[in-house]
Amino acid sequence: MDARVNPDKTGKGKRQMYRVMIVDDEPLILAGIASLLDWNEYGCEISGKAANGQQALKLMEEQKPDIVITDIKMPGMDGIGFMKAVKERGWDDVIFILLTNLEEFSLARQALSLGAVEYLVKMELTEEKLADSLRLAMERREMKRKAEAAVTAVTVSREDAVREHIERLLADGRTSSVGSGADDRGRNGDGCSEEAQEEENDSYLRRPVLAIISFNYGYEGFFSDFTREDQKKVISFAENIIGQMVKGYFDHSCLVRRELNSLVLVMSTDGIEDYREQIRSLGEKIISVVKDYFEVSVSVAVSSRKESLGEFGSLLYEAMSATNHYFYHSLDPVVFYSEECETSARHTGSFHIGFLKKDLSQAVALNDSGRLEEILDQVASLLREHNPSRQQAVNACANLYFFLSSFFEDEEEPDFPYEVNIMEKLGRLGTLGQIIQWINWFKEAVSRILERRRDTRVDKIAEMVREYVMEHYKERITLGQAAEALNISQGYLSTAFKKQSGESFTNYVSAIKIEKAKELIASHQYMMYEVSDLLGFDTPFYFSKVFKKVTGMSPKEYEAQCLKEKKL
Fold it and tell me: How confident is the model at residue 377, as a pLDDT?
């Protein structure tokens, strides 16, 4: 427990202030001891008072005293039981001074064996005796503090060395640190041989287990204002929180940031038989805390236990295999390596969707939202069936995105979900399920655009067809010619025109030609074969056939009708 620091009355600087707790079931004794000294002059302050051991234990968790002056005989929990309870909780840095009566010397000796520095007989207690005991307690506390600081410094130094070692292994992709950071004599920067350093690393992380903690930022935040800087802040804060949490489960561990999406945790499980249960408990706590603090989901993929850190390559491979297993199945977010993970680790050699691009192009050209949805559903099915790696799946989605966006850039389609950092955002998707969820979202977004374009474009296409026919009615007009001239597929032109006009393209062309034929016949300036030729019919016979189909009479009959009406 850390001593407090308060200003020195002399004004020469600051000095340590020790927190003192007094425990006794007699109120007069409590009050008497508290008023016996000017505690501040001795560099102390009364942090709390308690009537028995049970009450004192509760206060200690909050007040963290450095020195405890306690009676031996108290109701509920006496001083001996209280000291034992403190030791059981691992609070070995607390210094005890015992208060006793004349007949309690045997208990006092027991208390001294538990680590008390002094015992004081209540009836003989004076300011000088209390002050002497207090000085002795402070000296003992200072000795413990220095010893703790030395141990902490050694531990931190070893932690740093192990962390640097693991960082090199992750960066180099090697399972040994030989030749990494060593001089020509095979010694590292601290003058230690590589072999000696590896032995220290192995002794620090005995029987290691490696876990990859992956941050799955997910689809729900895909198009939010969540930036790369936000991602850095999340991983930094989470790293600090998780680092503290791990210390409550494993005496020796090392936490290293691998990238913005993951942390690598190596734990020593030596002497821990139920290490899997401990890791599961830790993993579930990490998942809960990160979700509560940052609203980010996390998965923890765990290797099997190895004998030494020299098997780092196997540790990392197994944890990555477990990560892949979660990527595909997304069931339990705490995944332990097993043979089933081996299947997930075997990816397809390559994964391509290029063969679908022709169909996609046609669907966009025709504004066929139904066909587009079928193709993107096929992409999702291929991802499920072919077991691509995470990077292959991300690349396929990015390829799909860039290909489809190219159809809308020239038209400056405002509703298309343009994204500058599409690769970065796709890279945040931590599971295959999230990637497929993104495909479904993208499918719906593009489908809505095509539906709107189809509905608004039909009228425009029908008008374009009418203008084309009126300009070219004297020629032989076919559906293929019109589609090519208007840069529209024959099928879409035929469907769009019929939807808007209610008649087929061929019937419309025939109707326009026959209307023009009727005008020419009524002028009585042309022979029938000349009318046929002027309007682009192949033969007079075919002209006559079409004329009768449209009007119900032959061209000759129509001419006779016009002459009769003229005489009248």
Answer: 95
pLDDT, residue 453, reads 78
Q: How far apart are CA 70 and CA 79, in angstroms?
A: 6
Task: Give me the pLDDT at residue 223, please.
Answer: 43
Q: Which of 446, 465, 295 is nearest to 369 (CA)?
A: 446
Cβ atoms of residues 270 and 251 within 8 Å: no
3-state class of 4 per DSSP? strand
Strands (E), 156-252: 208-216
* C-alpha closest to that of 431 among 346, 372, 344: 344
Tell me 21's DSSP state.
E
Strand partners, 77: none
The answer to whether residues 504 and 494 touch, using CB atoms and an 8 Å cutoff, is: yes
Residue whose tokens read 């993104």: 438
CB 281 within 8 A of CB 305: no
Q: Tell me, what DSSP letter sits at residue 96?
A: E
Q: Residue 23: its pLDDT value, please? A: 92
What's the distance, Cα to Cα, between the start and end of the chain in Å? Answer: 124
* Cα(102)–Cα(80) distance, integer angstroms: 17
Distance in angstroms (rounded) separating the CA atoms of residues 435 and 450: 23
Q: What is the 3-state secondary structure (H, E, C) of 155-208?
A: HHHHHHHHHHHHHHHHHHCCCCCCCCCCCCCCECCCCCEHHHHHHHHHHHCCCE
Report the predicted TM-score, pTM, of the whole model to 2 decimal places.
0.51
Cα-based distances in Å from 464 to 314, 485, 493, 510, 555: 67, 10, 10, 17, 30
Q: In sequence order, what are the residues at sequence separation of 6 or more whose Cβ sits closer than 8 angstroms to the Cβ of residue 162?
A: 201, 204, 205, 254, 266, 309
Contact call for residues 107 and 72 (beta carbons, < 8 A):
yes
Exposure string (b/e) for 75-112, b if CB count within 10 Å is 16 or more?
eebbbbebbebbeeeebebbbbbbbbeeebeebbebbe
Q: Rounded distance, CA 338 to CA 231, Å?
A: 31
Q: How far is CA 432 from the centre of its chain?
A: 13
* Residue labelled with tokens 């019109």: 482
Whether 12 and 102 have beta carbons less than 8 Å apart is answered as no
Question: For residues 74 and 122, is the Cβ–Cβ distance under 8 A?
Answer: no
Comparing CA positions, the residue from 334, 332, 73, 369 lying closest to residue 212 is: 334
**Mean pLDDT per 10-residue run, the chain (568 residues)?**
42 66 90 89 91 89 89 86 86 86 66 77 87 90 75 61 84 45 39 58 85 78 61 87 89 86 92 92 93 87 93 91 86 88 66 87 84 94 85 89 83 70 79 89 91 71 86 90 86 80 88 92 90 91 92 92 82
Please tell me the distance from the alpha carbon of residue 266 to that of residue 165, in angstroms, as a whole number: 12
